[in-house]
């Protein structure tokens, strides 16, 4: 499967994608066990801004247990790593800043690692592209994106 901007680094059934975050919403919570919860979770917890790309990947993944944080956000609620799995697919999403002082959502990118069958990964990515309504592989700050990921972009 080839799509414009599709540049996975393939290692058997493992694919790594880099995507530009455009929106920091939705705002969610992390419970005491490190599990992602809705913002109005009754037990409270730390705040995290999931972002449009991560939210779309989690929605497209289908039914799954609540994602768990491998790395919780600290002062910067948009810098984190989480994992989720469903239907033979596993995803690990890392959110990090790549330009400036990360004052805007567009200063963030997501590194998405997907493990699964090529056809299932293709379906997931196409579902994400359809739900986002924009190409997440187009970087807002191309030179900084290239420096951070070591990938050339069109």
Describe the structure.
Residues 1-7 have low confidence and may be disordered. The chain is globular, with a radius of gyration of 15 Å. The protein has helices spanning 52-60, 118-132, 142-149; strands at 14-20, 27-30, 36-37, 46-49, 68-71, 80-86, 89-97, 108-115. It has one domain (14-149). The chain is an alpha+beta fold. The strands form 2 sheets. Strands 1-8-7-6-5 form a 5-stranded antiparallel beta sheet, covered by helices on one side. It has a 3-stranded antiparallel beta sheet with strand order 3-2-4, with no helix packed on it.
Radius of gyration: 15 Å
- Give the helix tally: 3
For the terminal residues, how far apart are their CA atoms? 18 Å
Q: Can you count the beta strands?
A: 8
Low-confidence stretches: 1-7
Shape: globular
Task: Looking at this protein, list some descriptive labels.
154 residues, alpha+beta, five-stranded antiparallel beta sheet, three-stranded antiparallel beta sheet, 21% helix, globular, disordered N terminus
Please give a quick description of this structure.
It contains three helices and eight strands.
Question: What are the SSEs and their pairings?
Answer:
Blueprint: E1 14-20, E2 27-30, E3 36-37, E4 46-49, H1 52-60, E5 68-71, E6 80-86, E7 89-97, E8 108-115, H2 118-132, H3 142-149
Antiparallel strand pairs: 1-8, 2-3, 2-4, 5-6, 6-7, 7-8
Helix pairs in contact: 1-2
């Amino acid at each position: 499967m080839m799509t414009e901007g599709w540049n996975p680094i393939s290692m058997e059934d493992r694919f790594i994608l880099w995507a530009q975050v455009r929106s920091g919403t939705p705002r969610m919570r992390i419970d005491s066990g490190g599990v992602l919860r809705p913002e109005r979770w009754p037990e409270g917890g730390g705040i995290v801004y999931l972002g449009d790309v991560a939210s779309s990947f989690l929605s497209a993944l289908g039914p799954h247990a609540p994602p768990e944080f491998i790395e919780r956000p600290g002062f910067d609620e948009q810098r984190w790593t989480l994992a989720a799995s469903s239907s033979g697919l596993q995803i690990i999403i890392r959110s990090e800043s790549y330009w400036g002082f990360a004052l805007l959502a567009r200063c963030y990118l997501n590194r998405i690692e997907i493990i699964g069958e090529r056809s299932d990964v293709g379906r997931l990515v196409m579902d994400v592209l359809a739900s986002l309504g924009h190409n997440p592989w187009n970087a807002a700050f191309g030179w900084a994106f290239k420096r951070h990921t070591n990938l050339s972009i069109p």
